[in-house]
Amino acid sequence: LIGIRIFGKILRMPRNIVMVIVLIFSVIGSYAIRNSFFDIYIMAAFGVAGFFFEYLDIPLPPLILAIILGPMIEDNLRVGLIKTHGGFGEFIFDPICLTLIFLILFVFFGGSVMKFFRRNKME
Fold first, then answer.
1. How far apart are CA 36 and CA 48, in angstroms?
2. How many domains does the chain have?
3. What SS3 state is found at 13?
């Protein structure tokens, strides 16, 4: 309730002013973490990459999910490989894994297979 008036005023501000304020806070925050200009360069590089992603209409949520979930998936894969002594067979030939693999393949290729059968049925 305290910030409602402030956030309402921020929404009424011109976009270019808000962007400058966000940029200033981003630079200050990047530098404040380790007192290193290298962190500012990294922030700028990711900002340029984000601009090109927006320009090329590349969706950002999958990238954000990959950045957040990637280390957890890597750690769990490492634990699983240690438990199976480095074998991938337990990951692939387990009934639950086979079901998930089948469902993933069906989602990716199901539409094109259905179009193929419909086209051949009409001919």
1. 19
2. 1
3. coil
Using an 8 Å Cβ cutoff, are 73 and 65 in contact?
A: no
Asked if residue 18 belongs to a domain, the reply is yes
pLDDT in tens, 17-74: 888 988 999 999 999 989 989 999 999 998 898 889 889 988 888 888 888 999 999 9
Spatial distance between the Cα atoms of 30 and 39, rounded to a whole number of angstroms: 6
List the alpha helices (DSSP H) in the chain.
4-12, 15-34, 37-55, 61-83, 89-92, 95-122
Tell me the pTM.
Answer: 0.51
- List the domain range (segments joined by +) for residue 30: 1-58
